[in-house]
């Protein structure tokens, strides 16, 4: 009579146990059901979204769905965060001819991406913001035209502003309000106006208001509605403010708010960075003028929604990676902004312009 080896017995038992408790592969129908995307009717089979096609993409895959009667694309938008969790990926939803396209972007973002300036797309004033799972994300500041950047200290706000300066130098008139005084002082040697006190900031904002009024009069006389249609010499102006909360003077706020409301047509853009854009720092009406927004990791959902809108709390759950943010422009995507140390930014400018003009003084 043969006796089974005790080791073999244990191996057989472990294999049987593993097969018994092995988790079942999650199907699309499981995802729809768990997310509440199902239509249930009395004595009828539940109706679920139907996959029409699936295509592989560089960022992951695309699903094209038929949505049953009783559901709509709004039901998917309301369950956006649940769907991201279920697919373990960032997703985008897009209605297409009565169907729904789901982009499932499951590629990992790099944690550090050195600054580089590739050939820009066809835009009036293109600036690279960072890399999403779909590739490099560009923002057309002329179309925005105002850009709000928020996040906790050390998250990457000032570094992004250095990247914007490097991209805009030579194609736009840059003016800086740096009440922290240290980050952008090197730009003075390259002909860039840098305001380091509230008095100087007020002068910069007042000059911009005067220039805006002059440009509006010129465009009106020329019979055009925006600077892109004007045949004469009218370069874009970008005013960068790093840290908006330090701009506490009422006169500065009044001048800034007027620019936010009226400067769109005449080629003047405001890029403002702050730790927390509460109503004490910038009013709700003025905050609404920032069509483009970037939010690094913030403390909670309330702060995320203050920046990205009432329906987007994603910035509160970003990984603790410097440079990781949520960009809201034509789409809402997670991005990794590029890394450009101050020393490297200074070196790049000297290589491009070894003998730059001195910046004009601020009265």
Main traits of this protein?
363 residues, alpha/beta, Threonyl-tRNA Synthetase, Chain A, domain 2, Rossmann fold, 2 domains, 8-stranded mixed β-sheet, 4-stranded antiparallel β-sheet, 10 helices
Helix and strand topology:
Layout: H1 6-21, H2 28-34, E1 50-57, E2 60-66, H3 73-78, H4 80-87, E3 90-96, E4 99-105, E5 126-132, E6 135-140, E7 147-150, H5 157-168, E8 173-178, E9 193-195, H6 198-222, E10 237-242, H7 250-262, E11 268-274, H8 284-287, E12 292-296, H9 301-308, E13 324-328, E14 332-336, H10 342-352
Parallel strand pairs: 7-11, 7-12, 8-9, 8-10, 10-11
Antiparallel strand pairs: 1-2, 2-4, 3-4, 5-6, 12-13, 13-14
Helix pairs in contact: 5-10, 6-7
The best one-word shape is: elongated
How many DSSP H or I helices?
Answer: 10
Q: What would the CATH topology of the largest domain be? A: Rossmann fold
The proportion of residues in beta strands is 15-25%
Structural class: alpha/beta
Low-confidence runs (pLDDT<50, min 5 residues)? Answer: none
Number of domains: 2
Q: Report the biggest beta sheet as strand number plus sense, adding barrel if it closes.
A: 8 strands, mixed
Helix content: 25-40%
Based on CA atoms alone, the radius of gyration comes out at 26 Å
**Level-2 CATH architecture of the largest domain:** 3-Layer(aba) Sandwich
Spatial order of the strands in the main sheet?
Answer: 9-8-10-11-7-12-13-14
Topology order in helix (H) and strand (E) letters: HHEEHHEEEEEHEEHEHEHEHEEH
What is the CA–CA distance across the termini? 106 Å
Number of strands: 14
Overall pLDDT, averaged? 88
> What is the CATH superfamily label of the largest domain?
P-loop containing nucleotide triphosphate hydrolases
- Under the CATH scheme, which class of the largest domain? Alpha Beta
């Amino acid at each position: 009579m043969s006796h089974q080896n005790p080791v073999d017995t244990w191996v057989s038992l472990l294999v049987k146990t593993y097969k018994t408790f092995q988790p079942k592969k999650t199907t699309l129908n499981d995802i729809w059901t768990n997310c509440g995307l199902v239509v249930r009717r009395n004595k009828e089979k539940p109706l679920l979204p139907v996959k029409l096609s699936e295509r592989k993409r560089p960022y992951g895959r695309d699903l094209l769905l038929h949505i049953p009667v009783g559901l709509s694309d709004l039901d998917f938008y309301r369950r956006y965060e649940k769907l991201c969790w279920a697919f373990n990926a960032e997703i985008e939803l897009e209605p297409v001819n009565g169907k729904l396209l789901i982009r499932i972007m499951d590629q990992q973002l790099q944690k550090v991406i050195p600054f580089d300036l590739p050939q820009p797309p066809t835009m009036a004033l293109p600036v690279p913001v960072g890399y999403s799972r779909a590739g490099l994300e560009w923002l057309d500041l002329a179309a925005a035209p105002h850009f709000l950047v928020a996040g906790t200290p050390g998250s990457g706000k000032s570094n992004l502003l250095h990247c914007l300066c490097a991209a805009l130098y030579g194609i736009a008139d840059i003016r800086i309000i740096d009440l922290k005084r240290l980050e952008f002082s090197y730009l003075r040697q390259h002909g860039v106006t840098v305001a380091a006190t509230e008095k100087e900031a007020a002068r910069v904002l007042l000059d911009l208001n005067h220039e805006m009024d002059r440009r509006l009069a010129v465009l009106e006389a020329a019979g055009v509605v925006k600077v892109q249609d004007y045949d004469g010499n009218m370069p874009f102006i970008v005013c960068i403010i790093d840290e908006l909360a330090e701009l506490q003077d009422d006169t500065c706020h009044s001048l800034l708010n007027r620019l936010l409301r009226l400067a769109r047509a005449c080629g003047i853009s405001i890029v403002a960075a702050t730790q927390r854009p509460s109503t004490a720092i910038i009013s709700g009406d003025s905050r609404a003028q920032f069509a483009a927004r970037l939010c690094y990791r913030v403390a909670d959902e309330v702060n995320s929604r203050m920046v990205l809108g009432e329906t987007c709390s994603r910035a509160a759950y970003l990984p603790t990676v410097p440079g990781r943010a949520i960009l809201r422009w034509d789409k809402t995507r997670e991005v990794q902004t590029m890394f450009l140390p101050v020393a490297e930014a200074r070196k790049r400018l000297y290589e491009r312009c070894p003998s730059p003009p001195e910046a004009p003084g601020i009265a």
